[in-house]
Amino acid sequence: MGENHYVNVIIENGLGTIEFFHPAHNSLPGDMLSRIVSAVNDLSLNNDVKLILIKSSGDRTFCAGASFTELSSINDLETGKKFFMGFANVINAIRKSSKLVLMAVQGKAVGGGVGLASAADYCFATKWSSIRLSELAVGIGPFVIGPAVERKVGFSAFSKMALTPDVWQTAEWSKQHGLFHEVAEDKNEMDQQIDTVISKLKAYNPEALTELKKVFWQGTEHWDELLAERAATSGRLVLTKPAKDAINAFLQG
How many CA atoms, within 13 angstroms, populate the side-chain half-sphere of residue 108? Predict the structure, then answer.
């Protein structure tokens, strides 16, 4: 990890916290996504951990999605698929974890950041947590994260977001559609809500929580294959001229 970006793991009082930071609006390059996958897998196997919390550093931006710098460097199908498997692997790690995974979305989430939030078993947010699926605007689409987003908000809401990549949806909209479970006024209030829920969850039978986790994700057993297929689709599309032009225009800003 470079000094200017990190993925940190803290275990305290039965809670395993994964915190990530990147100076580019908490975007997630491949190395950071791999670190998050490893952290989720390790915490899932740790008998001292009852719950997992994923959050990012800072105040108004949760996650800007994939790294556009890495996106622009893709020149072949294999590299493309590998790049888009980054978020697929995080979603699948959360899905297959025996522990409930909570998410703290303190600010805006774009693209893969929305996918990350959608993979949570319980998701906290603030009124600043607007969301947007921006992929179509850069010549691709929310293929990899689509199943996770659609599972939470429903097909109609997902298709609306996918087809309006320039439109922000509010935190309240996300709560109404099932993506966020709690929406606080600010980060401090959100943190208090998280502490309250965590203290209650830790008091429940851990075996019951594990069984509930299985119920929550029933019907997604094919996602290893599904998300890999979606990653291949995105990897192919990112090589097309419209996508290359859009990504370069974004980087030149």
Answer: 16
By DSSP bridging, strand 131-132 and strand 108-110 are parallel
Do strands 15-21 and 6-12 pair parallel, antiparallel, or not at all (unpaired)? antiparallel
pLDDT at site 2: 52
Which tokens is 7 given? Answer: 């993925």
In angstroms, what CA-CA distances link 95 with 10, 150, 189? 21, 15, 27
pLDDT of residue 239: 96
The two structure tokens encoding residue 213: 């986790």
Q: What 3-state DSSP class applies to 218?
A: coil
Query: What is the model's pLDDT at position 252?
Result: 86
Q: Among residues 165, 154, 30, 163, which one has the least CA distance to residue 84?
A: 30
Instruction: Going from the first residue of the chain to its last (253 residues), give the mean pLDDT of each consecutive group of 10, the final group possibly shorter.
Output: 84 98 95 97 97 95 93 94 97 98 98 98 98 96 98 98 98 98 97 98 96 98 98 96 92 82
Distance CA 17, CA 225 (A): 28
What would the DSSP string read from start to end of 34-48? HHHHHHHHHHHH-TT
User: Cα angle vertex 166, ends 165, 170, to 5°?
Assistant: 95
Please tell me the class of the 6-202 domain. Answer: alpha beta
Q: How far is CA 166 from CA 39, 130, 143, 161, 180, in A?
A: 33, 12, 17, 9, 21
